[in-house]
């Protein structure tokens, strides 16, 4: 009847599309039963095997996970072609989130897990084992420092911290033959002291060490660590990626850009990636190439230990990421405005926001995070403010807030405040806190999506109580 041409086939490979397009579409797959437009919540612990031989091939690894053969794929795989075994290792809802995040970060594969702490633990346990060593920058999330100093110490994995990441000699002193990774963050909190990733990546490359970067506070909307030489990115998806503060989650992204074979030849051994785990099975590197590290994380760490992300949370995560760039624009715009305003208030001693022209890291902030119309660097929406009067000033200020929520947490729609010295950093020795700049009058703010005028009014009201 009609001679109109057939419709264009749907797109499933979103490489080459813009960030905003990929945050909406990357990772989606067709629902051949009902045409569901929104990827559904696949609440099933297990999956039917077609027959005996299908079960055999799923277990012997001859069928790959969808995520691992993502690169270059032009046709839609159906979920059944992904050949899952059990939801501890992977789930169709979580694949959407994993593929979307890998696309936004510019990596090849990602693995979703149950929390940011699970992501950091899994990422590093795929690289280091008993007797090994990791070097981290000193200014990192308090929970991560506790994880390294307590649980990793019990696993027999040692840490050394570099205090001045711009000092090559300090790195050279810290790195040992048994070092297996360098760990850092994009925008550390509470002090917003952004790292020079390119410089750290050069140190890592020189020593054949993978650089693992926590990009929770930066988010791929503001900075993509792989473009600066990182090899692995980890996230607490609890924060900006999911975006609404309702779901704890985490993820590991493999940049696919680390030369594991060259590291092995140089004496840095990564057995989970480069060596065979059992007779007759080739090493991950041979089987999965650029996705070998992520496969080791999924199969040899996450599957053993079990920090699985619930598909309900995977759903909230892939929904949240659809609006990431829009939310980050607003978060950053309000944060810069508030940081600049706070700096002018007589009750405020200092503001730690790298993007402000008064901050020593301003040039780096603008170079790596871009600038707003007034030349201020866009270093996220989590930063420190120090009020007059030490601990008593901090108490009066916190108690005077009405719109800001007094709570632990960062990076959702709500603005939040916490006093690091008596919370996130309360278990650290006084000398350590002093060195980290965690003073009695320091508060951490996470600027949310409320109207900036209301937030400024709220802060002014609280400062009036000092
Ligand atoms: C919150 C946070 C974590 C821990 O994530 P959870 O999801 O709470 O386990 C790790 N790193 C950074 C930078 C964080 O902000």
Automatic annotation (TrEMBL):
Any one GO molecular function term: methionine gamma-lyase activity
Annotated InterPro entries: Cys/Met-Metab_PyrdxlP-dep_enz, OAc-hSer/O-AcSer_sulfhydrylase, PyrdxlP-dep_Trfase, PyrdxlP-dep_Trfase_major, PyrdxlP-dep_Trfase_small
Protein name: homocysteine desulfhydrase
Family according to the record: Belongs to the trans-sulfuration enzymes family.
E.C. designation(s): 4.4.1.2
Lineage: Bacteria, Bacillati, Actinomycetota, Actinomycetes, Micrococcales
PANTHER family the record matches: HOMOCYSTEINE/CYSTEINE SYNTHASE, HOMOCYSTEINE_CYSTEINE SYNTHASE
CDD domains tied to this protein: CGS_like (cd00614)
Any single Gene Ontology cellular-component annotation: cytoplasm
Cofactors required: pyridoxal 5'-phosphate
Ranges where the record places region Disordered: 70-89
GO BP terms in the entry: cysteine biosynthetic process from serine; L-homocysteine biosynthetic process; transsulfuration
Keywords: Pyridoxal phosphate, Transferase
Catalytic activity: L-methionine + H2O = methanethiol + 2-oxobutanoate + NH4(+); L-homocysteine + H2O = 2-oxobutanoate + hydrogen sulfide + NH4(+) + H(+)
Residues the record lists as N6-(pyridoxal phosphate)lysine modifications: 239
């Amino acid at each position: 009847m009609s001679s109109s041409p057939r419709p264009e086939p749907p797109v499933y490979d979103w490489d080459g599309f813009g960030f905003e397009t990929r945050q909406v579409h990357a990772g989606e797959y067709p629902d051949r039963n009902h045409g569901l437009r929104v990827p559904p919540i696949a609440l099933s612990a297990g999956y039917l095997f077609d027959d005996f031989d299908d079960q055999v091939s799923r277990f012997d690894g001859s069928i790959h996970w969808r995520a691992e053969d993502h690169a270059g794929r032009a046709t839609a795989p159906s979920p059944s072609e992904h050949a899952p075994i059990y939801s501890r290792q992977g789930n169709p809802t979580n694949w959407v989130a994993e593929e979307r995040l890998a696309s936004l970060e510019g990596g090849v594969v990602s693995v979703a897990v149950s929390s940011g702490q699970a992501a950091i633990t899994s990422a590093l346990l795929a690289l280091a084992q008993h007797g090994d060593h990791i070097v981290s920058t000193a200014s990192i999330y308090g929970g991560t420092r506790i994880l390294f100093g307590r649980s990793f110490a019990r696993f027999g994995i040692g840490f050394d911290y570099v205090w001045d990441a711009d000092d090559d000699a300090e790195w050279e002193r810290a790195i040992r033959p048994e070092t297996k990774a360098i760990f850092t963050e994009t925008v550390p909190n509470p002090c917003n002291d952004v790292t020079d990733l390119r410089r750290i990546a050069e140190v890592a490359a020189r020593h054949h060490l993978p650089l693992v970067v926590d990009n929770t506070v930066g988010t791929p909307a503001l900075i993509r660590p792989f473009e600066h030489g990182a090899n692995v990115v980890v996230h607490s998806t609890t924060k900006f990626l999911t975006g609404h503060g309702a779901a704890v989650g985490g993820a590991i992204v493999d940049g696919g850009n680390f030369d594991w074979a060259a590291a092995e030849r140089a004496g840095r051994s990564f057995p989970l990636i480069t060596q065979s785990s059992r007779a007759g099975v080739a090493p991950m590197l041979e089987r999965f190439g650029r996705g070998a590290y992520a496969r080791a994380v999924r199969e040899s760490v996450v599957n053993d230990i079990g920090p699985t992300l619930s598909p309900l949370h995977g759903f909230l995560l892939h929904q949240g990421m659809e609006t990431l760039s829009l939310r980050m624009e607003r978060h950053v715009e309000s944060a810069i405005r508030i940081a600049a305003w706070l700096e002018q208030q007589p009750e405020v001693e200092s503001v730690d926001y790298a993007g402000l022209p008064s901050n020593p890291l301003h040039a780096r902030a603008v170079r790596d995070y871009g600038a707003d119309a007034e030349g201020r660097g866009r270093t996220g929406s989590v930063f420190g403010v120090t009020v007059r009067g030490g601990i008593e000033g901090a108490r009066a200020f916190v108690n005077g807030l009405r719109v800001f929520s007094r709570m632990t947490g960062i990076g959702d729609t709500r603005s939040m405040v916490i006093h690091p010295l008596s919370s996130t950093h309360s278990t650290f020795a006084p000398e350590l806190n002093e060195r980290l700049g965690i003073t009695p009058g320091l508060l951490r703010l996470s600027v949310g999506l409320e109207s900036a005028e209301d937030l400024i009014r709220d802060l002014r009201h609280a400062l009036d109580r000092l």
